[in-house]
Automatic annotation (TrEMBL):
<keyword id="KW-0808">Transferase</keyword>
<keyword id="KW-0418">Kinase</keyword>
<protein>
    <submittedName>
        <fullName>ERBB3 kinase</fullName>
    </submittedName>
</protein>
<dbReference type="GO" id="GO:0016301">
    <property type="term" value="F:kinase activity"/>
</dbReference>
<dbReference type="InterPro" id="IPR000494">
    <property type="entry name" value="Rcpt_L-dom"/>
</dbReference>
<feature type="domain" description="Receptor L-domain">
    <location>
        <begin position="28"/>
        <end position="139"/>
    </location>
</feature>
<dbReference type="Pfam" id="PF01030">
    <property type="entry name" value="Recep_L_domain"/>
</dbReference>
<dbReference type="InterPro" id="IPR036941">
    <property type="entry name" value="Rcpt_L-dom_sf"/>
</dbReference>
Amino acid sequence: VCAGTLNGLSVTGDAQHQYRTLQRMYNNCEIVMGNLEIVLIDHTQDLSFLQTIREVTGYILIAMNVFSWLPLQNLRVIRGTQFYEEKYALFVLLNYNPNTTHALRQLGLNQLTEILAGGVYIEKNAQLCHVETVEWRDIMRDPRLEPVV
């Protein structure tokens, strides 16, 4: 079990500092108590340490990154005890660099079966594949929410 963050899009230091902080917080972590916020991570960084995460109790924010693949293949549940922008449990935004070919191409959420509370927002990810083929309504527990993809 490890603690999550509540920084939103605010970052401290440069991209290298962001990466080291992320690695220190989530290395060998299976349950994130709080939010998993992955912001401003470079394409050269190895994020394989994230593959041990199975559950996030809050929300997941993936924004302004330029890595190609997010290794959250063992994540099964987002509980949504906290929301990003007051309603989203999964928020994925602006994961590409318009000046290069570096961009998020795969979310890697192969095992994600439940979002217990909150919605899904995925927008402005120029090279992200397969997100519109996912049946987000089957994963989201709240039938009143519409996924924004």
